[in-house]
Design a protein that fits this description.
3 domains, Dna Ligase, domain 1, 8 strands, 6 helices
Length: 209
């Protein structure tokens, strides 16, 4: 039955054959040489002791250091997603910083990053939309029968829709912006038609005199 051991250098759990009991073994991860317990029971005791005594520190890519914490607490951090592959770990028995995915292979990523604070990706700024305001202007134009509000809603809506298509404005307000633009445009066009008809009728009346 394999003997379960814990490397004192990196804290990695390892299994070795019973024929190596009481002999020296080398960790395949950190090359630390340690003694294999004489029995499976001794190996379990050693593992429990290491889990209690081994303390870990974690460094984030931004350079912040946390700890020391026990193996159990570090395992909990991994489960909670607080430890990523680009973090670095060091134990009280091995002060050299190693990648977190070397201790926890499940965190493996295609590319490792430096422990020095890496440049953050450039975030593109997107301005908030004015969909509510444009819709309000369109509705007000019909409420107070003032074409100025309708024209404002029409012009502002057209400009904001262009910015949304270009990705410079929050596209979540597209529906409100389109509704306000259409309502304002209809009122402005209706007002222009009424004015044209009124002028035409007025000129026609003058011509009959």
């Amino acid at each position: 039955m394999p003997i379960e051991t814990t490397c004192p250098g990196c804290g990695r759990k390892l299994q070795v054959g019973e024929e190596h009991a009481g002999k020296q073994a080398r960790c395949p991860l950190c090359n630390e040489i340690y003694s294999v317990p004489l029995s499976v029971a001794d190996g379990a005791a050693t593992t429990a002791e290491q889990a209690v005594q081994n303390q870990w520190r974690m460094r984030t890519p931004e350079g912040q250091t946390y700890g020391p914490v026990s193996n159990g607490d570090l395992d909990a951090w991994v489960r909670e997603g607080r430890v990523s592959a680009d973090c670095w770990l060091a134990s009280d028995t091995n002060t050299d910083w190693v990648h977190a995915d070397a201790v926890y292979p499940a965190l493996t990523e295609p590319k490792k990053k430096s422990p020095v604070a890496a440049p953050r990706p450039v975030e593109r700024y997107v301005a908030g939309h004015r969909g509510g305001l444009i819709l309000a202007l369109g509705i007000i134009s019909w409420t107070v029968f003032c074409p100025i509000f309708g024209i404002c809603a029409w012009v502002m809506g057209s400009a904001d829709l262009r910015e949304m298509r270009a990705g410079r404005l929050d596209a979540s307000g597209t529906g409100l912006t389109q509704a306000g633009q259409i309502i304002g445009m209809l009122h402005a066009l209706l007002t222009i038609i009424v004015i044209v008809v009124f002028v035409f009728v007025l000129l026609l009346g003058v011509g009959w005199r």
